[in-house]
């Protein structure tokens, strides 16, 4: 079955063709510009290719209420020109195939849950720690939406005692996860890109503290069977042991399950699909759109 996958990001649109097994055959990306030319690029890529459905993992916020007249639209994004763009409807009308849509992080969570690090499990939370921070939750076949959809990147954290920028850099919140721990926040705090900071730099202890608080909050709120940490910042592999150790310390033995207490190395893990979580998840959203 030939399916389309779109990872709609704030800086680029990644279009791919693949199948229901999550195999990606080809992909192409375009810069995200004004909505009209950008959506036209996407339509030109998929038109006439014979796809049976399209899955979209998109930046947001999105309207994911299936009963809403604006279902599948981008809503209040600060990205200029993209407010209230009916992304799903535009693509469905132009391509004439079912279109499934979810947040970028829910898409990646679905990919990892079914075909990646969560294979065989019933629940998983996926975070991307990159330019921004976002999280998606999968539980017993469903992606968590709730009232709107979760905005895990904006959970509030306690500042590290040695953080020179203890309020973080989110324009909306004092001390939220994204404002404290995304790649841009690391760069703003230390004045150099994160990848240029050596592993022994205190920046990483502070980063590990925030990501451990995020994991603890996730464990006590959602109790997933696994937490997957992806995104550019997590390419710093030395972060994983630091985050795991600090998560155990902060939990204080309170959630006494062997998956955490004895097997933390396989509880907080990198994405098994590498950088493909979003593309694979989008293909699975296409499968779901077919019913
Ligand atoms: Zn925030």
From TrEMBL:
<dbReference type="GO" id="GO:0008865">
    <property type="term" value="F:fructokinase activity"/>
</dbReference>
<keyword id="KW-0418">Kinase</keyword>
<comment type="similarity">
    <text>Belongs to the ROK (NagC/XylR) family.</text>
</comment>
<keyword id="KW-0547">Nucleotide-binding</keyword>
<keyword id="KW-0460">Magnesium</keyword>
<dbReference type="InterPro" id="IPR051804">
    <property type="entry name" value="Carb_Metab_Reg_Kinase/Isom"/>
</dbReference>
<dbReference type="InterPro" id="IPR043129">
    <property type="entry name" value="ATPase_NBD"/>
</dbReference>
<dbReference type="Pfam" id="PF00480">
    <property type="entry name" value="ROK"/>
</dbReference>
<dbReference type="InterPro" id="IPR000600">
    <property type="entry name" value="ROK"/>
</dbReference>
<keyword id="KW-0479">Metal-binding</keyword>
<keyword id="KW-0808">Transferase</keyword>
<dbReference type="InterPro" id="IPR049874">
    <property type="entry name" value="ROK_cs"/>
</dbReference>
<dbReference type="GO" id="GO:0046872">
    <property type="term" value="F:metal ion binding"/>
</dbReference>
<dbReference type="GO" id="GO:0005524">
    <property type="term" value="F:ATP binding"/>
</dbReference>
<keyword id="KW-0119">Carbohydrate metabolism</keyword>
<keyword id="KW-0862">Zinc</keyword>
<keyword id="KW-0067">ATP-binding</keyword>
<protein>
    <recommendedName>
        <fullName>fructokinase</fullName>
        <ecNumber>2.7.1.4</ecNumber>
    </recommendedName>
</protein>
């Amino acid at each position: 079955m030939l399916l389309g996958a779109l990872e709609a990001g704030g800086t680029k649109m990644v279009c791919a063709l693949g199948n229901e097994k999550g195999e990606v055959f080809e992909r192409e990306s375009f810069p995200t510009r004004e909505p009209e030319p950008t959506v036209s690029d996407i339509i030109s890529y998929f038109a006439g290719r014979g796809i049976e459905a399209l899955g979209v993992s998109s930046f947001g916020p999105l309207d994911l209420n299936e009963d809403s007249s604006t279902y599948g639209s981008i809503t209040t994004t600060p990205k200029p020109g993209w407010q209230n763009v009916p992304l799903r409807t535009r693509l469905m009308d132009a391509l004439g195939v079912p279109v499934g849509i979810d947040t970028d992080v829910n898409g990646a969570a679905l990919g990892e849950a079914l075909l990646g690090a969560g294979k065989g499990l019933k629940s998983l939370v996926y975070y991307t720690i990159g330019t921004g921070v976002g999280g998606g939750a999968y539980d017993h076949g469903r992606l968590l939406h709730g009232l709107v959809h979760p905005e895990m990147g904006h959970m509030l954290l306690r500042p590290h005692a040695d953080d020179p920028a203890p309020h973080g850099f989110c324009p909306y919140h004092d001390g939220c996860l994204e404002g404290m721990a995304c790649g841009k926040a690391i760069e703003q705090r230390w004045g150099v890109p994160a990848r240029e900071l050596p592993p022994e730099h205190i920046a990483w202890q502070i980063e590990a503290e925030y990501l451990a608080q995020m994991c603890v909050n996730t464990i006590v709120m959602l109790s997933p069977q696994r937490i997957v940490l992806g995104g550019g910042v997590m390419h710093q592999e030395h972060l994983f042991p630091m985050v795991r150790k600090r998560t155990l310390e902060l939990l204080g033995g309170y959630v006494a399950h062997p998956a955490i207490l004895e097997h933390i190395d396989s509880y907080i893990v990198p994405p098994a699909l590498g950088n493909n979580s979003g593309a694979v998840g989008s293909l699975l959203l296409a499968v779901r759109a077919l019913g």
